[in-house]
Amino acid sequence: MTVTVKITFDLPPPDTPVRAIRQSLSDYTRLPHDAFKLIHAGALINDDNAPISAYSLHENSVIALIGATDPRHAPQAQSERSIVTSIQTELHALRTSLRPDLDSFLADPTNQKEHLRLGELLLQALLRLDGIATEPASEEVRKERKDAVREVQDMLDRLDNAWAAQRS
């Protein structure tokens, strides 16, 4: 079962450390601050001491909050080949089922419901890719997932840019 929860909050000044956002989310969700990961634009926000500007966070940024896996309940390690296959399967599904809808939307970016639907599906794909365990894995596996995240993020950027352009 998949659940998506959206939280809107005021972004602090650009020089504010990331830990302030993590603490706010921890307070709001009542999760320990180390019980979740933060992802922005396909990148893991992993330095709580860095300013939020280091991660290009700005007004209307989308940050994914992913619950950390309890190692006691982690599945058995997968082989590198099966990890790569999981990544490629996710991308293939997106390319065949979602890209045609995205291309149609880009040709006529006026349907708000379609914009929201496609955005949600792309964000879910990013979360699924993030959920694919890459440890222990080779540099090839990490590169494969990084490339897949970039491709999905590019689709999301194209979607949002087309929507923004038609609204202006």
As a whole number of angstroms, the C-alpha radius of gyration is 17 Å
State the helicity in percent bands.
Answer: 40-55%
**pLDDT < 50 stretches:** 71-77
Which series of helices and strands comes N to C?
Answer: HEEEHHH
Count of domain modules: 2
The CATH homologous superfamily name of the largest domain equals BAG domain
Order of neighbouring strands in the sheet with most strands: 2-1-3
Question: Mean pLDDT, rounded to whole units?
Answer: 82
Brief rundown of the structure:
It comes from Sphagnurus paluster. The protein has 168 residues and is mainly alpha-helical.
How would you describe this protein?
There is one protein chain. The chain is mainly alpha-helical. The chain has two domains: 18-70, Phosphatidylinositol 3-kinase Catalytic Subunit, Chain A, domain 1 (Ubiquitin-like (UB roll)), CATH 3.10.20; 78-167, BAG domain (Methane Monooxygenase Hydroxylase, Chain G, domain 1, Up-down Bundle). It has helices at residues 18-29, 80-107, 112-130, 139-167; strands spanning 36-40, 43-45, 63-67. Helix 2 (80-107) runs antiparallel to helix 3, helix 2 (80-107) runs parallel beside helix 4 (139-167) and helix 3 (112-130) packs antiparallel against helix 4 (139-167). The longest helix has 29 residues, at 139-167. The model is unreliable at 71-77 (pLDDT under 50). Keywords: Chaperone. This is BAG domain-containing protein.
